[in-house]
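hey m, so remember when u said the tokens were messed up on ur end? i reran from scratch. heres the input so u can diff it against urs
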Amino acid sequence: MVQLVAGHCKNGLDIKNNLKPPGMCLAIPGKLIAITSQLDDTFRLGKVSFDGVIKEVSLTLVPEAKINDYIMVHVGAAISVVDEVEAKKTFDILKQLGELNELDPPDLTT
């Protein structure tokens, strides 16, 4: 089963006809490639690859996450460890829907 996790960002969540309202955020699957900071077993930061785009995220909510695990990331925090196959399916669907634009760095040339 493909897992899409949605949450609130700016506006209230009001879904009608299965459409995503403006301001809704999705959790994005990525691969944990490094632990960058660790206060203890719970409070950790890690680098996550989203198809080659690297972001640093909080791992506090997933103390069980290990390097090479796939995790769902929502608003800069990993919220669950997920299966690699499902993570890749979800990422591909989000890519097809054009929901990954925020991962790309801004174009500063214009």
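this time it looks ok to me. Confidence is low (pLDDT under 50) at residues 1-18. if urs says something different then somethings off w ur setup not the seq
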